[in-house]
Write a structure and sequence with these properties.
Blueprint (H helix, E strand, L loop, with lengths): L1 E5 L4 H13 L4 E6 L17 E5 L5 H9 L3 E4 L6 H6 L2 H21 L2 E7 L25 H20 L3 E6 L2 E2 L8 H10 L5 E3 L5 E3 L1 E2 H14 L5 E4 L4 E3 H11 L8 E3 L14 H7 L8 H14 L1 H16 L7
Parallel strand pairs: 1-2, 1-4, 2-3, 4-5, 5-6, 6-11, 7-10, 8-13
Antiparallel strand pairs: 9-12
Helix pairs in contact: 1-7, 2-4, 4-5, 6-8, 6-10
The structure holds nicotinamide-adenine-dinucleotide (NAD) and 2'deoxy-thymidine-5'-diphospho-alpha-D-glucose.
Length: 334
């Protein structure tokens, strides 16, 4: 089976490639990646003959058409993925997330190739902290940020291409991922590498915002379950019942690294900051038989701390620039 993985040099895509090569000897992979600031091709450097890396833009119709024609399956991870960046400059988000997805869909339509679309729970907006509800496949779209609105738009393009053109596509909307190879701009790796570098962790606002954490391997196993057994045209929510507030995450990282639990700062809040995400993944579990393997968040987080401590060469070069970028806008408020 020949699989085209877009965004395979980024966090989730690279973990998907590593796990797939390990678990599926019949699969050959081509990664199409623009190698933006978010990519780290060193993650894929020593993977051997069953993988090739093409540097290119998913919005480049010539490259995309040529590659799609030569594959049995497209798994589309490539995106501009960071909310804070989308608030500073949305233009690349529109280009990659909307125009890039459109370009892939047209190629997949032309060549009749199976397509799986990776998306986010953020398309549903947010929940109050005391809301007993969770997102389901029937929750109306209500995105808050330039990032989540472009992801929502990309999902709707996929749905339209399924209905209007009979595309063989599925969609998954997953909650917040953690694990190895995540860029240090993101919350968990930022705070781990802050502590490792002697910088105090930074909590936006009151630190009470809740995210529904899932290990990246559980996400990617769910993606394969949907590719293997999902119903064409359908959407599946992926989540592992991992709701934790941001302050608790930081306190756990500090504890794991042997620091006082209050050794962090509150900084200016993110504009439009979504309060809480929570996924009901009943459909994925009952219809496709998927179950998460990482059931203990503290243990998974501790293993992730170990990974960043043992792989400083993977992240240290990008760390200074990321912190300089944050310092330009955030102020300590408590
Ligand atoms: P990431 O930012 O770590 O990686 C994105 C990758 O896409 C990078 O390698 C980058 O170079 C590549 N890319 C960006 N623009 C491109 C373009 N125009 N053409 C080709 N490649 C391009 O992102 P991630 O966290 O791994 O997220 C992957 C996907 O999963 C995204 O679609 C995101 O919306 C979705 N998602 C992420 C999470 C999460 O918690 N990180 C949760 C749910 C869904
Ligand atoms: O829910 C899925 C989404 O999760 C994905 O679609 C996105 O691609 C991914 O980036 C992530 O979005 P978030 O905005 O939730 O993730 P981020 O890591 O930026 O922030 C997580 C939470 O931590 C959020 O409430 C903001 C907060 N935060 C973040 C940073 C970087 C802080 O308190 N301090 C920080 O320094």
């Amino acid at each position: 089976m020949r699989v085209l993985v877009t965004g395979g040099a980024g966090f989730i895509g690279a973990n998907f490639v590593l796990r797939t090569l390990e678990q599926r000897p019949d699969v050959e992979i081509t990664v199409l990646d623009k190698l933006t600031y978010a990519a780290n091709p060193s993650t894929l450097a020593t993977l051997g003959e069953r993988i090739s890396l093409v540097e290119g833009d998913v919005a480049d119709a010539v490259i995309v058409d040529r590659l799609v024609a030569d594959h049995d399956l497209v798994v589309h991870f490539a995106a501009e993925s960071h909310n804070d960046n989308s608030l500073a400059d949305p233009s690349q988000f529109v280009h990659t997330n909307l125009v890039g997805t459109y370009t892939l869909l047209e190629a997949v339509r032309a060549h009749g190739v199976r397509y799986h679309h990776i998306s986010t729970d953020e398309v549903y907006g947010d929940l109050e902290l005391d809301d007993p509800g969770r997102f389901t496949e029937a929750t109306p779209y209500n995105p808050s940020s330039p990032y989540s609105s472009t992801k929502a738009g990309s999902d709707l393009l996929v749905r339209a291409w399924v209905r209007s053109f009979g595309l063989r596509a599925t969609i998954s909307n997953c909650s917040n991922n953690y694990g190895p190879y995540q860029h240090v701009e993101k919350f968990i790796p930022r705070q781990i590498t802050n502590v490792l570098n002697g910088i105090r962790p930074r909590l936006y606002g009151d630190g009470r915002n809740v995210r529904d954490w899932i290990h990246v391997d559980d996400h990617n196993d769910a993606v394969w379950a949907i590719i293997d057994r999902g119903e064409i045209g359908e959407t599946y929510l992926i989540g592992a019942d991992g709701e934790v507030d941001n302050r608790t995450v930081v306190e756990t990282i500090l504890e794991v690294l042997g620091q006082p639990a209050d050794a962090f700062d509150f900084v200016t809040d993110r504009p439009g900051h979504d309060r809480r995400y929570a996924i009901d993944s009943t459909r994925l579990r009952t219809e496709l038989g998927w179950q998460p393997s990482y059931l203990d968040f503290r243990a998974g987080l501790s293993a992730t701390v170990d990974w960043y401590r043992d792989n400083t060469e993977w992240w240290q070069q990008t760390k200074v620039g990321v912190e300089q970028g944050y310092a330009a806008t955030e102020k300590v408020i408590g």
